Amino acid sequence: MSSNINDKFKKIETYLIKITNDFDKGVFVFQVGFPEKWFYKSNEHVECQKIANIEQEGESAGFIIEIFPKKEDIYIEEVVNFIVKTVETNNRIAEMEELFMEKMKTEKQKMLKEVEEFSSQIENFRMSSFDDLNNDENIEFNLNKIKKVGEEFGKVVDESKENKPLEKNNNDLKNIDPDDIDKKTDNK
């Protein structure tokens, strides 16, 4: 039995701060330190009381709790089992959270790469659309490519904008008086 309790103490030694004997209550009190996000909860046999916060470099890093039996007839092994289960459960949760965060990081990198590819393709089609503004077929071709690329990446282009026919602009830049441009910019 003693080797069993020693094995259990080894599982919690990282978190165990000290064990004291509360002579008034007739019980041993375990002080343990847990990381900030860890959860603990008293049960019908064991009491948990938070006694202090742990700060590291001005930020919360965890807390210290006292864990002790609620009655004198609760054996120390039950309290140790409670602490072991609390540590094991929180460690498993932390591992799952870490795996999830790693997966999210990978997915984020993948999405950023897709967005970069999407933006690059759109920019290429946009640039080639303006190579020859008099070539309506080239513009339509590039707009259709942009639409396909958008759909490919899950983007839905506003159909009302897409279905409008291209209007040929009769305003020729040659007809703009350069003096008018200078007057407008001088007034600003």
Topology:
Blueprint: H1 2-12, E1 16-22, E2 27-35, E3 46-56, E4 59-69, H2 76-129, H3 136-152, H4 159-162, H5 178-186
Antiparallel strand pairs: 1-2, 2-4, 3-4
Helix pairs in contact: 1-2, 2-3
Structural features:
single chain; 188 residues; alpha+beta; 5 helices
Our count of helices gives 5
Tell me the distance between the termini.
Answer: 89 Å
Number of domains: 2
Shape: rod-shaped
- Briefly note the structural class of the backbone: alpha+beta
User: Strand-and-helix sequence, N→C?
Assistant: HEEEEHHHH
Query: What Rg, in angstroms, do the CA atoms define?
Result: 34 Å
Average of pLDDT: 80
Poorly predicted segments: 155-161, 163-176, 181-188
Strand line-up across the major sheet: 1-2-4-3
The level of helicity is 40-55%
Strand content: 15-25%
How many strands, what sense, and barrel or not for the largest sheet? 4 strands, antiparallel
Total number of beta strands? 4
Written description of the protein model:
It is a single chain. The chain is of the alpha+beta class and 188 residues long. The protein has 2 domains: 2-103, no CATH class; 107-164. The chain contains 5 helices and 4 strands; from the N terminus they run αββββαααα. It has helices spanning 2-12, 76-129, 136-152, 159-162, 178-186, and strands at residues 16-22, 27-35, 46-56, 59-69. The longest helix is centred in the middle third of the chain and has 54 residues, at 76-129. It starts with a helix and ends with a helix. Residues 155-161, 163-176 and 181-188 have low confidence and may be disordered.
